[in-house]
Structure formats: structure tokens, C-alpha cells
Amino acid sequence: MLDPSSSEEESDELLDEERRDALLAAGGGSSPRSLPPPPRDPRGREGGAGRAASPSPSVLSEGREEQERLQREEREKRLRLQLYVFIARCIAHPFNAKQPTDMARRQQKLNKQQLQTLKERFQAFLNGETQIVADEAFCNAVRSYYEVFLKSDRVARMVHSGGCSANDFRDVFKKNIEKRVRSLPEIDGLSKETVLSSWLAKYDAIYRGEEDFCKQPNRMALSAVSELILSKEQLYEMFQQILGIKKLEHQLIYNACQLDNADEQAAQIRRELDGRLQLAEQMARERKFPKFITREMENMYIEELRSSVNLLMANLESLPVSKGGPEFKLQKLKRSQNSAFLDIGDENEVQLSKSDVVLSFTLEIVIMEVQGLKSVAPNRIVYCTMEVEGGEKLQTDQAEASRPQWGTQGDFTTTHPRPVVKVKLFTESTGVLALEDKELGRVVLYPTSNSSKSPDLHKMIVPKNSQDSDLKIKLAVRMDKPPHMKHCGYLYALGQKVWKRWKKRYFVLVQVSQYTFAMCSYREKKSEPQELMQLEGYTVDYTAPHTGLQGGRMFFNAVKEGDTVIFASDDEQDRILWVQAMYRATGQSYKPVPASQAQKMNPKGGDVSADISPLYTDRGQKHGMEEFISANPCKFDHAFLFQLLQRQTLDHRLNDSYSCLGWFSPGQVFVLDEYCARYGVRGCHRHLCYLNELIEHSENGSVIDPTLLHYSFAFCASHVHGNRPDGIGTVSVEEKERFEEIKDRLSSLLENQISHFRYCFPFGRPEGALKATLSLLERVLMKDIATPIPAEEVKKVVRKCLEKAALINYTRLTEYAKIEATAEKDSEAMNQATPARKLEEVLHLAELCIEVLQQNEEHHSEAFAWWPELLAEHAEKFLSLYSVDMDSALEAQPQDSWDSFPLFQLLNNSLRNDTFLCNGKFHKHLQEIFVPMVIRYIDLMESSIAQSIHRGLEQESWQPVKSITNSLPNVALPKVPSLPLNLPQMPSFTTPTWMTSMYESTNGSATSEDLFWKLDALQMFVFDLHWPEPEFAHHLEQRLKLMATDMIEACVKRTRIAFEVKLQKTNKSTDLRIPSSLCTMFNVLVDAKKQTAKLCILEGGQEFASQWQQYHSKIDDLVEETVKEIISLLVSKVVSVLEGVLSKLSRYDEGTFFSSLVSFTVKAAAKYVDVPKPGMDLADTYIMFVRQNQDILREKVNEEMYIEKLFDQWYSGSMKVICMWLADRLDLQLHIYQLKTLIKIVKKTYRDFRLQGVMEGTLNSKTYDTVHSRLTVEEATVSVTDAGGLQGITMKDSDEEEG
Prior knowledge:
With 1299 residues, this protein is of the alpha+beta class.
């Protein structure tokens, strides 16, 4: 607050100096963040004049700096106060702008504390410390959101700059889960929209936390109010904060400016507009114009000034006349669409008629009671009537004469400024012949709008001979003041054209419209004025008393060219009120000052009068506010003041609690619009200042909406190139030069933002900002507003920016990776990194690079949709920087080290699915590095596998092992140790413990399973490489298939040899049991056939398909032939056992010595003892041999088809041997023992092989029929000669013999 002890003279001098300096500074192009320099003291006062000795230079310098600082602060404070006066008037009486209701709703911004709280809440959820129930998929989504987004330093920087809101955080999570939910499988009865809604509800629960449930509604309600329409009080408070105005200073300004008085504010506007017109005329006379780009614009500039003022006049004229006061609301304004603007002082303007100033008044008459009523008996009924002459008559309720009290109110409407009110008192007549009630008294009143409105006692006029000589009535008459009536009262008047006689009249100051006022004199009971005078063009002022005029004490006049009207009132207070009202109505720039007040303001002219009315005492003047209130707005550089105002407003807006991105609030837009319109701030200047401030904030790290920059830049560009966006056709040289400067700065800013797009627009936030930035860059690069820039030029600039972006992104990524690594390892370990450590680092860096490219694709590809190839070039440039580190790490790896293959898989899996990067420059470079490594690895593996086959089969025990090949998952790559030998040794195969659950039945040998597993793992490894180049990928596949074919062929041949050797070592007796090693060999061949189909067949569609099929058919034929051979060998072996049994039966042939000896001995012994008959041991032993070997084969051989073939050949061979044996004995009768043994062998063999699945066609072959017929005949022969010899053994099917 200003020092109240300073004299008025000093205040005036300081004010003049300040205004001069402000105008000079504004015109001289001061720095945008500084106020005008402090003025020099014209009086040359020195602070240390009273000291004996001069101080040292340092002390003088410090004192001077302190003095300059104090002067600068004082000047800034005065400037802010003056600016606040102008703003307060804009808020108090707006007539051009309204608060916009269609602006985008701004969300509350997040600060660093809230971000930290948010991280803690999500961490608590992931740690299971909340009550929110969630499935694994949601937890994974939250974990990814927490790790990638919430912990990102880019998000932290954006929060610090004030560009993040809770809505941004929610949108990022929503996009993340939408992608995840789309990849989930469909679930019956549960739509993906339901899952999304549920996940978002859980996210909201995590975000809010448990303690904010009660706070949230209040905060939301407060934010809704502050972002929408504001009241006048809220606008005053906002701009007090913006300009640093104290509450007391606001109250002083409010009262001194009469901001609650709409008439005073409208009069102030009229004076301002008149002053602007006078300035325009003065500028036209003196030819002092701003410097324009062409001289023709000078006359156009004057016309634009006049047109803008006329437009403001039309806007003011369109406002309805209002009482004003606190209930005055911001209202929607209608701008005049016609071209007939109001012109003050036009001699040909239409004169008002008397009917134009007819007023409407409302009267309230309240009758309270009657006193002094004595002429009527106490029990008589009395009542009152009331009327306004010329209107209707109303009556009160009835009351007893002893208590004549009513309190009745009557409402009347009249057009008479001086109405006549009549109130009468009646009593009811009791006479039979009485026609009317008796009148007891009456009173006639002449109220005006200035009359007292409180109840008063009035003496009533009573009839003659009435006893009520002191009859009084208490009543109140309230006559309101209509909005159009600004003042009224009795004055003496004398004029040349009206009121030509000096006499007292009742005058009313009537406002017909915002620019039309009339001074009207009225007679009683008349609605139209007797005479009237329009006040346009008149100047009112105080005058000295006129001695020749009788009546009236205090004089004032209204003067116009050719006319003077003298007025006089009875007291000073009434004169002051009349002059103030007429001063507002005339719109004159000169403010009347009575002689007594002028003496006070200039004490040297005389003494101060003691009878000054307290109503005229200006409280603001006492506190140093008069200089700001009375300052003429037309003498200020409003372009400079608006620049200061807009800067302070933007700073305040960016520091409030909303994520505004540079957009003003509706209330701020309203005040700035009103200020520009009222004080003539050019639109181009406004937007140039706005652009300058926005660019500066953006350069300092604030998040600014590029759409806002685009709007202001387009406006300025359109204006500078003559397209008249706001109807202004003049373009100053300063505007053009500033526009070019702003254009260059904006171009540099946009290119820098595109180069830092990952950090200026992290995760695509603010939404659509990057796309808008690219669109704005295209607009900025245009040479003029009409000629579009060639697409190639824009593309060239964007390409250059993205090349910088690649370097920036990779540099920051490597810094982040080093910081992360340093957190895990100490610096010494980092400096002495081993090759394995370097590979680990470059692998981690590859993961980060892939994540960056994925984020670019996910969040920024839409913005670069016009130039997708540029984003691909950016990615290639980015990867080329990574390739330097990758090549360095790979060169440090030892020879024949295969640990780098996961790096290829990681990068290749990412690149091969990208349309633009697949087989791009980096992708091809990656292939060139790894092609020799893949070939070398396959060479070593081929040698190692061949060596393991050779050595393994030499030492093979042929014991069965469990098979894991068919259920092989993504097994880790088999390691080839780097040995000094030419052929590296493969480690022996051991089944991992985690594969226990995958065990199947016993299968091949250790060597074969090792072979198949290695071949399968090698092919899976090469397949998982997903080599992108089709030709080399096909070469790898072909080579591995050929290698598998050769390896399997070698394994099959070695197994065939081992089978034959092992089989030869077995005996031929019925004690023979097929060893498990033979079954294992059999299974190896069976498994080889299966693996051939998997490991040796190429996909269809190759050019050499027919040639490859021929090659593949060879290995198939080899396996098939080998299987047939070992089946034949095995059948020959088991059939040889049957041949041995038959050779034993040959001893019983008829005619042999052994047969005769046996028969004689048995018959001789049977005479003396009970000799047992020959047993069936031989048959039972053979049958047991057959059955047990059948079970062994069935159990240990895995291929059913080959078992069936084996059993078929076994059965056929057995029947054939028996048939041949019987054929050799066609002429001999079989011995009873031979017959019994053969019958049992044949029948059991038939039944056993039938149970093993041998087909009926094979079982009932001709050989079997021949054997069956022969044995049946032999059986019949024996039954005739020796019926009991067969002991129940027969060839009949009804045989129930056990076994």
C-alpha cells in the first residue's frame, strides 16, 4: 500500500514520471520479463547529503543499488495498481466479452508427492498388502504398468513440469490392458468389455487408496466450480492474486471507482470511447502513425480505430439499462450487425419525443392507523380508501372505531412522476335511506421518488362541524425509482431554447439508452414531460451564483455550442448529486470540481471551506488511490500493459492446480478478451505476446499444448499476410518483424521437441500432442499462408529431427543402462568387465532397445502415420548406434563360444515381425555376423554327433532307456565345448530331472536316444533362430535334414550288425528267451523309422522336392529292409527251436531201433507193474517257450505293426516246419507219443497266435489245413488200435484240455 503521509504534490509528480517512463519503456522494446527502468530523480536529491565525509565507492554502489531496487519495486507496484484499476472496470461492467462455456475441461495436475504416493500404493498392491482381490493376469498388467510407466524418469519429469493429470495415468493403463485383454482367449459368458470394466474399477481403487474416499467428492466439487463460470467476486480475487494486489487496496479501488454503480461504469466507458475517438482525430491531424509496411495503411488505420470505437459504442448501446448494484450479472451480449454505428455529436441525429421518456412507477401505500377519532361511537365500523389520481381505488378491511388499525398495503402503478395520492376515512352509515357511507376525513399527498419511505402521521382534512379537529392518519408511501430514472428533484432552471423562465420545476434525468439521456421537467398528474432537453454534447460544471436570479442558492450549468442552461438547487449536497448524475450522462472527459474542492486540492489558492459535504470526500484519495482512479486510460500504452497482464496471468495459470497446458481458464479468457476490446489491444499483438510467453515456458520445460501454439501462430500469420482474421487490415512493421522472430523461435522449438519426442511426449502424453506438433511444423515451414509447402521439404526436416532423436534416445538409453549396472556392480568391476559380462550388458541393452522401439511403435507411430518410412529410418539409425556396441562385445568373445546366440534370437524375433525393419540394414548386418557362427556350430555338432555314434555303438550295452524325444520341450541348447581336438567331444546324455514327468515306456538304447535328442534339439535350435533370409534358412534346414538322414542311416546299419551278432550267440533250445538287448535293437530301428519322418522330411513346396523325396525314400527303404531282415532272423531263430523239438520226436519214428526198444520195454514191464505212459514234457516246454517269448516281444517291442508281422511269420514258419516234418513221414504211422506231442503243439500254437492277433487267413492257411488233416487221420487210426493211448488229447475243437 502506498505511503499515506506523502503529499499530494509529490504523488502527482511521481505519477507523471511513472507514466512517462512506462510509455517510453513500452515503446522502446523492453525485455519481456522486466518492467520499465526506474526514472531519474529530477530534483537531484542525494541520500548522503547530510554526512560529514563521503562514503567509500562500495558503500555508495550498494546504497545506489538498494535505492534503485526500492524505486523499481515502487514503480512495479504502481503499475500493477493502475493495471488492476483497468481490469476491475472490465470485470465490473463487461460489454464485449462473455465467459466461454465450450472450453475443454482441465484436469487437476499430479505433483511429485502424489506420484510418490501413487507408486507406494501400487507397490503395496503388488506386495499383497491391500484388500483388492485380483487374478494373475491383472497383477501382471499392474506390474508391467508399475515397472514401465510409473517408475519411468520421463514420467517423473513430465509430472515435475506440471503436464500430467490423473486422467493421463488412467488412459495409459487403459491402453495397456486393452492390448492385453485382446490377446486373452475368449471365455464363455464373460465378455472382454466386462473384463476391461472390472480391471479399470480395480485400478481406480488402487489409485484412490483407502484414505481418500472421503476427500474425493469435496475436491471434485471444488475443481468443477473453479474451472467453470466465475462470479465477479471470484474474478476480482483471481486477479488480485495474479497482480499481487492486497485486499485493502482492492476495497479502496472498488469504492473509489464505484464498481458497484453501473451508471458510473457506463459513463466511464463513454468517456473512454470519446477519448479514443479524439486521439484518433488528433493522430489523423498530426499524421503521427505507427510505422506500417505500406503508407496506404495509415488512413486505413484511422478508419479501423473509428470503426472499432463505433463497434464498442454499438455494443454498449445494446446493453439493457439496469439499476446496477450487486445483483448485476454477467449477461450474454448481442453485437450490432448493422453498419449504422452511433455517432456522438451528429447534428442530424433524431430528436427525442415526449412519448419516448414516459416512465412507469410503482407505489406502495401502507395505512397503519388513525388517531384522534372521537366523533364516532366506539362500536361503529370504519375503513379507509386509497387511490392514485387517474387510477383505481382500493379499500382497507373494516375495523371498530375504538381501534382503527389496519396495516393494509395497496399497490399501484402510474406513469406520473408527480402523482397525487388521496386517502379517505369512512364510517358505515346506519340510516335506512343512506346511499353512501359517511366520510370522516381525507388526506392528499404528493410523493416523489425522493420522498421519505417510512410511516409518518398526516393531519386529515375533516368536514365542517366535525368534532375530530385533531384527526391524524399514520401511513407510508413508497414510490420506487425505475431503472431509467437516474436522478430527480426540484431545481430552478433557465435556458435559451427550453425553460425560458427562471422558476422552480420538478426535474427527472431519464436514460433512454446507453448513449441517450434527457433532462425532463414534469407537472403534477402528467405522464409526459412539459419540456425536455437531450444531454448529448453538453458539458456540465459548477458555477458561481447569478445575482440577477431570485431563487436557488447553489448554481451549476450545462453548456453546449449555442446554448447554455442554468440550474440552481437549494443546498450544496443536492447540487453535487445533480452534477455527478449529469456528468455520467453527458460522457464529458472533464470532471467538474466545485470551488471548495479545488481550493483543497490546491492549498496555495486559498483556505479550505469548512462546509464541504462528507459525501464528496473521496476515501481513495486519502490513501493515494486518486491518481490511479482519475488516470486517463487513453494516455497509457495498453499494448505494453496487456503484455504484462497476459504474462502474469499465464504464470499464475501454469502454477495453479490444473494441468492446463497453457490454456487460460474461462474467467481469464473473459477478462483478457474484455480488456483487449475495451482498450484497443490489437489481436496480432496479443497473440504474438502469447506465443512469446508460451515458447519461453516450453523452452524452460513446461508442457504446452501445440494446438494452442498453432491457433495463435495461424492468427498472426493470417494477419501478417493480409487475410484480416479479426477484420484488421493494417500490418505494422513491428508486428511483421516480431512475427518473423517468433516464427524462427517456434521452428527451432518444434524441431527440438520432435528430436526429443520420447521425452517431450512420453508414452504419447499429452494425447495427440506429437501429431499436433508435426502439423504445426508444417504450418510454420510455409512461406506464406496460401502456398502449401512441398511434402518433401517437410519430410526432409522431420528426417533430420529423427536422426537427432536416434542419437539422443540411444545416448540416454546407454546412460540409463550404465546407471542401472552401476547400482548392481561397483565401478572397478565395470572397468574390468569380462567377455561374459560384456555380452550380458549388450544383451540387456538389446532388451532396452527393443523396448524403446516397441514404445515408439505403440505410442508414437500414429503421429508419424504420414511418414512411416521416416520412423523406420529412425529405428535403423538407432539400431546402427547399438550395432557399434554389439560388434565390440561380440569381438571380445572367445572363439567357438555360443553364448551369443540368445542375443541373435532376441533381436531377430523383434525385427522379423516388423514390416520396415525386417531384412533392413541392421537386420542384414546381424545376419552377416551370425552366419559364420551358425555354420561353425552346425559343423562341430555334426562331427560330434558322428563321433558319439561311432563310440557309443562300440560300447553300447543295449539296455533300454526312457524316451524323451517325442515330448521334448524348448530344451536348452546343447553345448559344444571348445576342445583342442579336431572333433569336439559331446558330453554324455543325461536326462534332466525336470523331465521326469514326461517319461514314456522303455524305448531305444542310450546311444540312439542321445542321437535322436541331439538331432531334434539341433533342429529345434535352428528353427528357433527363425532365420529371416529364406535362402539361407532353407539351406540350414536342408543341411540338417541331410545330416539327420546320414546319422540315422549309420545308426540303423550298426544296429543291424549288432542284432545279428547278438542273435547268433543265443542257443536254439526251448530254454531260449529273447534277450532285452535284441528288443532294444528292434526298438531302435522302430524309433529310427519314426524319427525319420520327423527329422528327415523337408516342408513341401521346394524346387527339388522330387529329388529330395527320392533321397528320403532311400533311408525309409533302408529302415524298412533292415526291420524285415531282423524279423526274418528272429523268426528263423525261434523256428529253429521248433526244429530241435521235432528232431527229438524223430526218435519215435516207426522202424527205428529206439522206437522198437521203447515199445518192447513198456509192454514187458506192464505185465508186472503199473508203468506210467510217456509224458508231455516236450510239448509243454515248447509251448512255455512260445508263450514267454510272445510276452517278451509284446512287452518290450513298441511297434504293434512289426510285432504282428513277426508273429505272422513265426506262426507260418512253425506250421511249415511241422508240415514238412509230417510230409517226410507220409508212409509211416506216427508214434502215439509223437501224435500226442504234435497235437498239443499245433493246437496251443494255433490258439496262442490267434490270441496275439494273427489274422484268420494266416491261421487257417493251407499248411495248417494239411497238418490238421494229417493229425486228425493219425488220431483216428490210433483210436481204433489203442483207444486209451491218447489220454483225451484230440484235434477236435471241443477239447477241454487245460493248459
